[in-house]
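Comment thread on ticket #2218

A.B. wrote:
> Attaching the input chain for the structure job we discussed in standup.
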Amino acid sequence: MIKTKFLQILPVFMLFVTFFSHNLSIEAFAFEDDNTYSIVYEKISPCIVSIEANLQQGISSGTGCVITPDGVILTSLHVVNKARNIEVTTQSGKIYKGRVIAILRDKNDLALVKIDNKEPLQTVKFGNSENIRVGQRVLAIGNPFGFRGTLTTGIISRIDYERKKIQTDAAINPGCSGGPLINLDGEVIGINQSIYNPDNNRSNIGIGFAVPSNYAKDFILTVNDKNGFNNR
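C.D. wrote:
> Ran it. Output below, let me know if you need it in another format.
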């Protein structure tokens, strides 16, 4: 009987020892409840748009993040590159004609698209991608296969500093390029770009990549400093 009681108490004691041996405070943990993801989604989804572009190869579908109230949208370059026609659909269902105003041709694969909206749009808030950690919980919003406004969840699986990429297991599929990778504060920490797909698009194996938000912010600031969005 004495031995049984000891075995029942031991796991709790070991947890207590482990907790304090690392000098962690209770504030070091980000507690989640059933409403956490819903709150983040409701906060940022009005800032996310779907994009359809008519390319020479066919119709390209993607996602975009609104960065100015007057309709400047950040997306992936490969979604709109050399497009003959671009349609942008906001969360409210309004459809606008879009035009590319700036591109970044390096591996970061970014572009800015402008729409002429009459009412001001809600805009995303960028986080600092230098503060991200492997294992951190993240969310992704996109339009996979045309299913507009889809939320997926996962973690940061790896940070590839050499290639300037955030790896995540949050589901990213065709139609999600240009959409945000978000932390639990509702900040954009990455722009979803691609997936590792060794079987020619037959499956998603949970290896997706995003451009860190700090590179996107540098691109946006450079364009605005040179020309100013209002002049476009």
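A.B. wrote:
> Thanks. Noting for the ticket: Residues 143 and 175 are 5 Å apart (CA to CA).
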